[in-house]
Amino acid sequence: MSRLPAAAIVAVYALLASSSFAQAPDAAKATAPAPQPANDYAKAENWLCRPDRDDACSADLTTTVVAADGALSIEKFTADPRAPIDCFYIYPTVSRDVTGNSDMVAGPEERSVVQHQFARFGSKCRLYAPLYRQITLTALQAMIAGKVMPMDRTLGYDDVVDAWNYYLKNDNKGRGVVLVGHSQGSSMLTQLIAREIEGKPVRSQVVSALLLGWNVAVPVGKDVGGSFKEMPLCRSASQTGCVISYASFRSNVPPPSNTRFGKVPGDNMMAACTNPAALAGGHADLHAYLGAARGSTSAIEPAPWVTPPQKIDTPFVAVPGLLSAECVWNEHGSYLEVTVAADPKDPRVDDIVGDVVAGGKVQADWGLHLIDANLAMGDLLNVVAEQSKAYTAKK
């Protein structure tokens, strides 16, 4: 197991999503290992999640709801085995394998990220999450240190394509499907949509694509173009065949000039921002599901959720009314601006963790990348529920 704290680990995989990784001379020198055989996705062990079995998506999602007055209540989670649509998830770079590309063995890091970013979608859809041979944290750490480590940059994407094609042939059976990804996972799905979905019959089955923590390009003032030729940004919960994408930053720590997220190359182009809590625009409260303890999505110990402190045994907390967000655009990029409604007079905590911190200093260029998915998880679920209704009504 790596001794890096959680924030450092996610900061490393976030680097993969930045243009600096692709442009780094040391990264360019890395040689690819010998070609690897394709994975057989007929094997159950090559999936983190599939319906009707006990796997990574069976994780505990019980949540303690922390009200502003300090009252605590428990929210149970119930999956829907009869959900009318599917969800297909590609996770971000979390593998701690010592090779340049990960193996096909699910470790605690893959299971943890599924718990935080995907398992909760089981209340709205059947869950599919393949393992894939991604570039590892080890390889990225070596690159940051100026060392060369063999890595195959196409292997992970080829795995994703193979898993997608296996799913379509053997599991989909004409059902609608939501694509879900974060950071490198969103990068993989962006390529998949552009190369394997747009312009093909399966395009009509895509309920939506949730490409979180990633720079999806659109022309300024438009909802389609750039990364995709056909799929527009979602502007209402009843709209289907569309894309939700954002990168989150604190309202009091906006993206600096060297931001990793919220900007794309090209004249008259911008990074997409769609607020899951207000797809049509404007400011709205977020329905967040945050990790309750240190090590879940941050290396920093959260402050007590209430004062005086009370023991919280659930893996997640919800803080209704504490967080809100709006998509904004400034000279450094387009992003989801997250506001914390701190009230020192009430007993509830006045801030959350989720920043990337190095040497005790917040790294503003990463924003709240660690918790992009957690911040709006409840809102994403609500949108998927409405999109599911709209899609099945059309069918």
TrEMBL record:
Keywords: Signal
One Pfam family, short name: DUF3089
The keyword Signal appears for this protein: yes
Signal peptide: 1-22
Domain of life: Bacteria
Listed name of the protein: DUF3089 domain-containing protein
Native organism: Povalibacter uvarum
